[in-house]
Design brief:
The protein has 467 residues and is mainly beta. It has helices at 3-9, 12-26, 34-38, 53-56, 195-200, 211-214, 277-282; strands at residues 67-83, 105-107, 112-124, 127-134, 138-142, 155-171, 174-193, 224-244, 249-256, 259-270, 288-296, 299-307, 312-321, 328-336, 348-351, 357-367, 372-381, 400-410, 415-426, 429-434, 447-466. The longest helix has 15 residues, at 12-26.
Amino acid sequence: MKLTQTLAAVTTVATLLVSTQINAAGFAIIENSASGMGNSYAGGAASAEDGSTIWFNPAGMTRLDNEMMVAAHVIMPDASYTDDGSITAVSMGGTQLDPTNTERTGEGGQNALVPNFFWVNEINKDLKMGLGINVPFGLGTNYDDDWVGRYHGVKSDVMSLNINPSLAYKMGAVSIGLGINAQYINVDLTSAIDLGTLCVAQEGSTFPAGYCASIGATPQGSDGFADLTASGWGYGYNLGLLYEVSKDIRVGLSYRSGIDHEVDGKADFSVPGQLSFIPENTGNFLDTSLSAAVTVPETTSISYFQNISESIAIMIDYSLTAWSTFDELRIVYDDADTTDSFAAQAPSVTTEEWEDSARISIGLNYQATDEWLYRFGIALDESPIPSAERRTPRIPGNDRTWISFGVTHQAEDARSFSFAYAHLTVDNTAINNTFEASAAAPVLEHTLTGNYQASVDIISAQVSWKY
């Protein structure tokens, strides 16, 4: 196998970087109100108690007065990785990956602040308009540059912004709602490249035995580095239906469409000086632009809300997110940033094979006094990642269990304040992910094998003004 063939194929290094954009979206941010957080977002499409209904079910605006709402959430993930036999590519002997690293662990959790803004205004008694601005996808991880899983991912920083103007109309006991969504996604992702192994793989063919060591290039000891940034806008819609069975019972149904993003960006590569001949001779690992088609999935929710007494209300929610549409990610690279006539790097494909995921939640409210409302909730939240083989260290998610509680204080001046806390426990999370290099570059197919212990804590605060 020629060196030029090998290096032309290893553009798959950047594929994993962009794939994290989807991984982050697979863990969509539901945190859109502190009031809902206290109930683990049970009844989200039926509660319709504040401006956040614009996101959960726009039809619920018909139950509101003129209102402005601001919320913020501090999300604190804790993910600890312990290695359990990661190995190099089979073609390189399947030996222990990164043998000089004695710790073989990783701490990747990265805190995030998530804001929300919602505004509802009456056009007439049956017609309401609203605007929501929120962050529907995001979070990230950040490991040390020399950790054992660096070839699978180092930094993952994903940010999104959704702008959602909406209308709602009431017809007797039924309200309908419609929203339009303009959504922006920005990604900054990095990983290491095992250039030392690429060099050694050519000894005996392109180079004489011992050549790489003579120039100071060793497997897992002469890493390059890839830094990818990309961004783009996409557009979609959301629909809602709210049926008020009686003054104490409501049923809500909402649908949020998938959104196609055509993202554009660039890949910046860093190469050790002794291996600078690689980009110079092949046109690979030179700074290049890229594009990709990224789709965030549709979500359908059905919710139930009931006041069972003057002081107690219960709520239930079932939501299904259609991640099964995400089967693969294909990246297209443009010409490298060079005056030489190198061909563009070959497209890369990463297999995902995600599955639809469900979220089930149950909540309870206790109205202690006219001023104080206490909230409780639990939820079971499925992960769309189908197996350890498809899981990466970017966001090492698995099925989660929510336990939450909160409080709302109604002030005398038409303001209300809500605070909530949630603790998420994550099922034991195994990873057995092999990097998907092309058939021409099997030397890069290292396998990361280990386990994550993870949990998440969330603190939320909210203020609403009625005017």
